[in-house]
Write a structure and sequence with these properties.
The chain is an alpha+beta fold. Helices cover 20% and strands 41% of the residues. Strands 1-2-3-4 form a four-stranded antiparallel β-sheet, with helices on one face. A hairpin with a 2-residue loop joins β3 and β4. It starts with 18 loop residues before the first strand and ends with a helix.
């Protein structure tokens, strides 16, 4: 169990694991529903702030690596906002 480190509120340490591309973090995971799919949570990273943007769902393709999928998502939806 995690220890509450807050004095006025319940505050707990946490980590976001994922792939950082530009100023975005992509948290990739494989999920089993009727069939295997992927979900990717996207966060905007601007130290010290991490802002949740959106969760994407996509079909699972065995030949695509997690990095391939995150790069494609970044290129399609987020690259233009950083230029």
């Amino acid at each position: 169990m995690k220890k509450n480190i807050g004095s006025e509120f319940e505050v707990f340490e946490f980590d976001i694991k994922g792939y950082k591309i530009g100023t975005f973090i992509f948290n990739y995971r494989e999920v089993m529903e009727d069939e295997k799919i992927i979900e990717i949570d996207v966060y905007k990273y601007s130290e010290p702030v991490v802002l949740y943007i959106k969760t994407y769902k996509a079909p699972y393709f065995e030949e695509a690596t997690p990095v391939d999928v995150c790069e494609a998502l970044y290129e399609e939806f987020y690259l233009a906002s950083e230029e």
